[in-house]
Each structure stands twice: as C-alpha cells, then as structure tokens.
Amino acid sequence: MSEKPVRFGLVGFGAWGGHHANAITVTKDAELVAIAAHSPASVERAKEAYPDATVYADYRELIARDDLDIVDVVVPSYLHHEVAMAVLTGGKHLLLEKPMGISLDQCDEMIQTAKQHDRLLAVGHELRLSSMWGKAKQMIEEGFIGKPQYALVELSRNPYRMGADGWRYDIDRVGSWVLEEPIHFFDLARWYLESSGQPERIYATANSRQLERPELQDNFSAIMHFSGGSYAVVSQTLAAFEHHQTAKITGTKGALWASWSGAMDRTRHPTFQLRAFDGNEVTTVPIEKPTGELFELEDQIARMVDAVRSGTPLHCTGEDGRWSVAMCLAAEESIRTGETVSVSN
After folding, report:
1. 172 occurs within a structural domain
2. Are residues 158 and 184 part of one domain?
3. Of 305, 320, 280, residue with least CA distance to 128
4. Were 156 and a residue from 8, 122, 240, 293 both cysteine, which residue would form a disulfide, CB within 3.0 to 4.6 Å?
C-alpha cells in the first residue's frame, strides 16, 4: 500500500510563490492542499490556477488546519518571523524562504521554537541542491582541489523586481538588499569553505546607481575571512543585464570554476559549465541535470518530502540560515561604518 502524499500549505502567492506552488504540484508524493494569498487579485489567481486547493485570504486560517504536514512560506522578508512563528507553534513543519529573518533575534526565536515543538525548520537556500553548485561542493569534499583557500562568488544581473506593493524597494520592509540576494552567495561561500572553520570578520562596500536612494545598494562587494585562514569574496551588481553567476574556488592542489547564465534568473533554458583544474590539466565536468533556481526549487520540495517521510537531512537548517543572516548583517554594518566587522556566531 502506497504512502499518503505529504500535504503542503503555501503562504504567499506572488511571483515567486507561484513558482513554489508549481514545484509542489509537480513533485512526486507532494500535494498542494491550501494556499494563503494576500490581495484579492492574488486570491483569485490562486483559485483559478489551483482549483483543487482551498484558498484563504488570511494565512492564520490555513495554519489552523489539522491536515497539513508542511507549510511553505513565501512572503516579503519583514513578515518571515511573524508567519514562521505561527507555523511552528501551530505544529507544522516549515520551509521558509530566505532570508530566514531580518535580525538574529528573530532567527534565534524560530530555531528555539522549532526545537520546542519538534518541527523541521528548513531555509530556502536552494542553490545547495544544484547539480552544478552542488557538484563543486562534492569535489571539494573529495579533495579535488586540496585544502580550500579562496572562493569568489559573483553575480551580474538586471535590477530587482519591485515585489508586491513595492516592498523590495522599501528598506523598512526588505531589511537590507544584502539580505535579498547576496545572502545566497554568502551561504555558498561558507558552504564551500566549511573545512576552514567559520566566518570571523567581514569588510564590505557598496553604492547605488540611484543617488537619492543610497540604501538600495545596486553594487556590493565583501571580503570575508574564516577562522582556518581561508577567505571569500562575494560581489554583486544589479546595474547590468540578464543574469550571470560564477563561483571560483581554489585550493592547495587545484581549482574549480562554475558559471551560469540566463536571460532571466528564472529561466529553464540557461547555459552553464563547471571546469576543473587538478594542477596539471583543465577538464569540463559533466553536469547531467539542468541547473537553475526553478529546478532547485523542485529539488527542495522533494527534499522536504523525504525529510518528513524518512528523516533525510535538510539541505539547509535553521542554524545554517542564521549564519547566512549573520554574515549579511555584518556586511551591512561594515558598509555603514567603513570598518571591518566581526561576524556574530
């Protein structure tokens, strides 16, 4: 007799929330049974797109259901803590989009509440599940480059989408633009250099093409030092075109260079390549499965299903999510002060 599907509720049905809904519906053994949407227009869109799901205008009604296994939360950053706490205290497992919170106190409270209620808390750093970015991590762990010493994670892209009601361009609601996308690259850098301890200090700088809005940091770069002597550079510009990301990792024996390009970040038709240098020759590493955040989003839903059913480890825990927030907040403080800032652990 086959197992019942893992039942999902989804809070948030904006542009990215719609992709989450699709990922749930196409994932084996996952079922989208309820959606909470904020605006009347998004409620109607959700009803039309997913007629078999119950759609709510108030997320609290969704959480109050007793037939949900996981609630997937895809709302603006300033609402993450409020909705996540309701999910966890309501006894549901939680998949929470990044950033986990906009303060470390928020992250700490979520982690503690998940433990108190014995619930899973996963954070949406889906790049860890990539067939290419993940292959680079595997090769590092297998010793291909020797001891990792340096990582560069860089993005050049078009400007951010405004978000519902323009929330992404309101610093009080987004928290910080460092928390918005560079957080993914801080997470990858820490992941790649994991064998070199934890981040200790960061120096960062940024500016804006919108001179009247300096808090909206279109151009951003940071250098981060680890306790074991390695360091990473994280850099981004939103003043460019299309979407182009690279990661370069070097060690005592070799190097890896991964690159991804698409007309948009959410394309299913990117170009990508992983090249490897073993100290003698350069080879192209085969990547059998397409990579891109839409593909990794589906892998993330599948990992949550496996975690609930069989205890498969989460791809990114609450503790990992907290580290990513800590790195970004330290970088933001460095931008403000012009000083090197210690990373809180």
Report:
1. yes
2. yes
3. 320
4. 240
Burial 321-342 (b: 16+ CB within 10 A, else e): bbbbbbbbbbbbbbbeeeeebe
Report CA torsion sign: 61, 64, 65, 69: positive
In a shared domain, residues 147 and 101: no
Task: Check whether residue 90 and residue 163 sit in a common domain.
Answer: no
Which among 134, 129, 130, 98 has a CA at the least distance from the CA of 249? 134
Total domains in the fold of the chain: 2
Could you give phi then psi for residue 84, rounded to 5 degrees? -60, -45
pLDDT at 154 over 50: yes
User: How many other C-beta atoms can be found within 10 angstroms of the C-beta atom of residue 157?
Assistant: 19
Q: Letter for the amino acid at 269? A: H
The span from the CA of 27 to the CA of 120, in Å, is 19
Q: Are 33 and 67 in contact (CB under 8 A)?
A: yes
Query: What's the pLDDT tens digit per position in 47-81?
Result: 999 999 999 999 999 999 999 999 999 999 999 99
* Structure tokens given for 287: 């990547």
pTM equals 0.95
How do residues 233-280 score in pLDDT, each as one tens digit? 999 999 999 999 999 999 999 999 999 999 999 999 999 999 999 999
Using alpha carbons, select from 61, 7, 52, 19 the residue that is nearest to residue 264: 19
| Sequence-distant (≥ 6) Cβ neighbours of residue 254 within 8 angstroms | 144, 145, 146, 276, 277, 278, 279
2 has a pLDDT exceeding 70: no
> In the Cβ-directed half-sphere of 226, how many Cα atoms lie within 13 Å?
22
By CB atoms closer than 10 A (0-12, 13-18, 19+), residue 271 is exposed
Q: Kindly report the CATH number assigned to the domain that includes residue 76.
A: 3.40.50.720
Which residues does residue 150 pair with via DSSP β-bridges, in sequence order? Answer: 231, 250
Read off φ and ψ for residue 191, nearest 5 degrees. Answer: -65, -45
**Cβ–Cβ < 8 Å for 147, 252:** yes
Among candidates 182, 180, 187, which has minimal Cα distance to 162?
180
Residue 150 backbone zone (phi > 0: left; psi -120 to 50: alpha; other: beta): beta
Nearest to 59 by CA among 107, 28, 94, 100: 94
